[in-house]
Amino acid sequence: MVVKLIASDLDGTLLRNDKSISEETGKALEKAREAGIYFVPSTGRALEAVPVEVMALPGVEYVITSNGAAVYSVSGGTRIYESLVPAEAVDALLEISMPENMTIEVFVKGIPYTASDHVKDPARYGATAFGIGYVKKTRHPVENIRKFVKENREHVDSFDFVCGDPQALDTVKKEVREKIPGVYVTSSVSHLLEIGNAEAGKGKTLLKLLKLLEISPEEAMAFGDADNDLDMIRSVKYGIAMKNATEHLKEAAYHITDSNEEDGVAKEIYRMI
User: Fold this and answer.
1) Residue 115 is part of which domain span?
2) Given this model, what pLDDT does residue 273 score?
């Protein structure tokens, strides 16, 4: 097995449930760095919401954010690639009817924004116990989120619908797929519907980065746990699903490793090296 690049999702994959990085995972990534292997965090999070501990991990020179909407150079501090939601699609998304228990958030230039009432009461929109603190810590509150989105319609990395009612989200998902061309629809957690450019997605963007680095998909490994990781693990030879992954991901995986609580990423890196 010859691997030159490892890409990994964060939540539920690289990070433990308390969002920490285990000592064993840190050691495994240092071994990979010593072997000359790139390590690329690949997340649905906006850049500003990526933990500083992740950015400082051994071998991290590039990071894929917002479900493939952007790639950043860590050392250069610059965005080297982007695939934004088309402005006309943003307009159409704002026209979709939403129930009272649904809100929206947008990532603009790597910064996550949402409605003020979402930040005040994340649980109203389906946030978990951890999610409540995460929303309050990472989201920038906007009093009139629709006006803000309209003003930034040409700079949207990702557009999200947030709702604790799965049936309501399914209805919106169906409408988006039927009525709005040029977008990619996915989900990393049950109360979130994430929408990006049809040319984005972690998999397509990872392939662009591999081409830039002159690394073939046969020389790459990717880890994930959720449906928004599906195209990424399919895009490379060694697509690895966590034991805690969705069934869709497990079915598509080259191999299934232990869970994020059991150092699954570290164990697979050791096995590979």
Assistant:
1) 87-197
2) 83
pLDDT band at 160 (very low <50, low <70, confident <90, very high): very high
Q: Could you tell me if 189 and 111 lie in one domain?
A: yes
Based on the fold, state whether residues 125 and 253 are members of the same structural domain. no
**What is the tens place of the pLDDT at every residue in 10-40?**
999 999 999 999 999 999 999 999 999 999 9
Closest C-alpha to 252, from 268, 273, 270, 228: 228
Residue 53 burial (CB count, 10 A): 12
pTM: 0.95
Number of Cβ within 10 Å of residue 34's Cβ equals: 11
Q: Give tens-digit pLDDT for 138-152.
A: 999 999 999 999 999
State yes or no: pLDDT of 1 exceeds 80: no
Exposed, middle or buried: residue 27 (CB in 10 Å: 0-12, 13-18, 19+)? middle
Regarding whether 212 and 188 lie in a shared domain, the answer is: no
107 and 193 belong to one structural domain: yes
Q: Which tokens hold the place of 26?
A: 């840190």
Q: Which residues contact 77 (CB under 8 A, 6 or more apart)?
A: none
Sheet holding 220-224, edge to edge: 38-41, 5-8, 220-224, 238-242, 255-257
Together in a domain, 109 and 166: yes
Residue 177 and residue 223 in one domain: no
Mean pLDDT across 88-99: 97
Q: What is the Cα–Cα distance from 217 to 211, expressed in whole angstroms?
A: 9
Do 69 and 120 fall into the same domain?
Answer: no
Are 17 and 152 in a shared domain? no
Per-residue confidence (pLDDT) for residue 59, from 0 to 100: 84
* Per-residue DSSP letter, 149: H
Q: Is 40 in contact with 63 (CB distance < 8 Å)?
A: yes
Contact call for residues 227 and 211 (beta carbons, < 8 A) = no
